[in-house]
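Propose amino acids for all 163 sites.
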């Protein structure tokens, strides 16, 4: 008889996105993304951070101050990183799991990549102009989005359990 307490696909892929977010060196916001095809195969992952070749210690992590001295002009968001990390794979019809609802810039990339569904965990910036614009574009482009719901609200990775 098979196990009954296994995790769902949504829990699995959001778990991968969440795990990817743990690679981010951003001290205030860590976001991860996981792109999956229609057969539940992972196509790519990404997290928010600086572009390759831009050292983490040479660019600012601050959130406030002059434009050239804060992180925003330099950081690549998790969704865009996942799209770029796919290295030309066909993403048409795929879905993206992300722990924070995509901003307007990432929504553009999601639409252009052909991703058809966004599954998100948090929409804490839902009242901001960027998120309102994002949802408007996603709606017009026919990209669906939904907040993930889980039977398991807590997943624990215990590396010692497999020794």
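Proposal:
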């Amino acid at each position: 008889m098979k196990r009954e307490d296994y995790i769902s696909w949504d829990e699995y892929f959001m778990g991968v996105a969440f795990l990817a977010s743990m690679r981010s060196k951003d001290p205030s916001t860590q976001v991860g993304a996981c792109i999956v095809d229609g057969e539940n195969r992972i196509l790519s992952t990404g997290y928010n951070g600086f572009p390759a070749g831009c050292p983490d210690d040479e660019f600012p992590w601050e959130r406030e101050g002059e434009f050239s001295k804060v992180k925003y002009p330099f950081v690549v968001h998790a969704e865009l990183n996942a799209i770029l990390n796919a290295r030309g794979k066909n993403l048409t019809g795929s879905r993206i799991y992300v722990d924070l609802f995509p901003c307007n810039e990432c929504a553009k990339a999601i639409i252009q990549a052909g991703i058809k569904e966004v599954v998100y965990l948090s929409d804490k910036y839902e009242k901001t102009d960027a998120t309102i614009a994002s949802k408007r574009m996603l709606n017009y482009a026919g990209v669906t989005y939904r907040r993930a719901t889980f039977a398991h609200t807590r997943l624990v990775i215990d590396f010692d359990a497999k020794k």
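The longest strand covers residues 42-47. DSSP finds four helices and five strands in the chain.
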